[in-house]
Amino acid sequence: MDIRPILSTLRRHKTAAALIVFEVALTCAIICNAVFLIESRIARMQRPSGMVENELIRFSIGGINEKGDADSLTKSDLAVLRSLPGVKAATVTNQVRYGQSSWNTGLELKRDQPVPTTNATTYLGDDQFLKTMGLKLVAGRDFNADELLSYRKIREPGSDYPVSSAIITRSLAEMLFPGQDPIGKVFYGWGDAPTHVVGVVEHLLRPNELFGPASADYSVIFPIQVDYNSGIYLIRTDPARRQEVLKSAAEALSKNGPLRIVDVDNDTLENMSDKFHQTDRSMVWLLASVCIALLIVTALGIVGLASFWVQQRTKQIGVRRALGATRGQILRYFQTENFLLTSIGIGLGMALAFAINLALMRYYELPRLPGFYLPLGALCLWLLGQLAVYGPARRAAMVPPALATRSA
Amino acid sequence: MTGNSQFGYYVQLALRSFKRNKVLTALMVVAIALGIGAAMTTLTVFYVLSGDPLPGRSEHLFHPRMDPRPMAGYTPGDEPHEDMTRFDAEALLREKRGDRQALMSGGDVAIEPRRDGLPPFRQISRYTSTDFFAMFGVPFQYGGPWPGEDDARRARVAVIGAALNEKLFGGGNSVGKSLWIDKSEFRVVGVIRDWNPQPKFYDLSDRNGFGERELLFLPFSTSRDLNMSSQGNFDCWAESNLDAEGSRGINAPCAWVIYWVELGTPEKVAAYRQYLQNYVAQQRSAGRFERPTAPVLEDVMQWLDFKRVVPADVRLQTWLAFGFLLVCLLNTVGLLLAKFLRRSSEIGVRRALGASRRAIFAQCLVEAGTVGLAGGLLGLLLAQVGLWAVRQQPVSYAALARLDPTMLLVTFLLAVVASVLAGLLPAWRACQVTPAIQLKSQ
Q1: Same domain, B213 and B152
Q2: CA distance B335 to B339
């Protein structure tokens, strides 16, 4: 098919042609980035946190200025919780993902290092922490009961309890000790004393992503038991019995010890996760709606302009038909014209998509747009253009040759 | 024809042409409406989140920042810390160099109603000093803030919010009544009306300023005396178990106290900046401060900007919506072009009958503007739907997403101006139509 007649025709309709090209270009650029954003948000929502989220309950209870021994009441609470029907395991810790609290510290590989090697979150757990959270141990061992320290005791003025063991996540182990066996290695994360890595878990995400997506899985678990005032209880139970256990835990702990206040925010981890990911979900919906709306608007624009062209060139089409062109040739003429315009638009659109992606990378910390978006975006818009132009092109093909002979 | 009736004539022509090309016009109006609806929804959310939380006062409220951290971990270009150590905050408060000043921290206490068998509950509170209320213009319903001496005396006094007053005392004047907080008896000195600046600029640690408001205010000194639990950001750079108060002690190497100062004139601001620099230099020579970072003094809007209170997602959504609007407008340009050039013969006749190029141009613009107005109306409806959807989300700023009169005006202006701009090119092309060619071949 000779494209020279197409080009010369377009030269005479520069404005409308340019409009189609720019519309396709903008749509392509926006959709490429929008789909990429959708993909990265969905990936973020589905990222494994390491915990058995559908079996966990966060339960917090606070004392009213209790002067008594909080540690022994905490131990008694845990015994009560572990004996409740339906409870598989229970632990006390300082923070949990999707919660409001986030404890973080800089980690060093040498003592008195001027700048920390990295930043990680610190979970404080007892010997039931791994079992309750359902964390998967990939190297080393869990804590022993005799390694546990009391958070209150080690924070007393003048006390000096070294925290000599910790469990870290796999990605943190890779970061601190690349390519080596992390078990037994030493880092500094709590005070001046060295801490030895005794175990590695596969995943344990930080409570939130304030320190950036790259370090989202950098977690350290210290064998420190907090008391019920400084921390929260995590209860692992059967997914079907979670509401039942929430109630029974509240009743049982209210009776265990002096008058205390049960937190109003106690909830299943699944609900907390839903709330946490709400903004990501809304963003995905918004992006998807805008993509669909963009495609519809662009398609309608092409339909409108193509119909207009068919109407303007009715006489020329009649002449061509009278000179022997078949209906199929007329149809293909318009389809090729649209293909040409769409291709120019896609070319521009790709360049624009990368430019937009660069801006997003700089200002919104997004990763680079992968190369395979180009052919995908191109295909999508070619299809759209061809679908849109089909109707007007068919109408053009229906123009009878007799029109050429009429003076109109 | 005079100007006014000419405009009316053009509007008539526009409406008549709409009736003749129903589908095309409908397409244009819907495209503009979609674009305007999306743009206005996101723009309203952005506008609401980046608004001034205390209009009229915010220019005089300042947040000083200095860096008490050691050299370990310092990289050149580091910002000074967002919070102060208790030592620095109390020192600045003592020296009283601003018109008014207050230190504060978030808190979380247990309240026992001790009546009607009501169970005890936890209450989000603020530990602060007396100037807080006057500085921020907090409106009182009954009573007033505690006097300055109560800060020094660590008095057991409290200011409560209207909702807490309702819950504990059934509303009414509860000044002088007793309140049991963390098992100590406090006396109510004031009840404030509903006060909820959005965002809570003075402490952005809870959900970036769109978290729960406090209903209880206690003197900071009292909270330290009773070792009450505090909420908010907390940063320690060394061991802090030096005394019984631990990391909340006066000499603890921890930054957690928030400080705000009111300065009425630019000269006072300059003087306070100098004072801060002198203070930092003093601390450096005393060996407490090690970093060379210069102190910063920002007003409310600068502080909110620094903390990027508007979530990145909201910015992205706004950009996306305007990109979409641009595509819708390009669409409109194309459709308007098609619409006007389709009527080339009619335009030719009008030109032959004596209409000037300018008249045709004006008429086309009026038509474009009318389409814009219709699109704007529909777009406004769509924006209301969009904002309703935003309000259903469990995000902290959901309740604020509403169109106020300014945004309503902006909607219409945007719709009309955008469509007139979109109509410029097609209108120009339309008025270039030569009558002779059009009249020849019919």
Answers
A1: yes
A2: 6
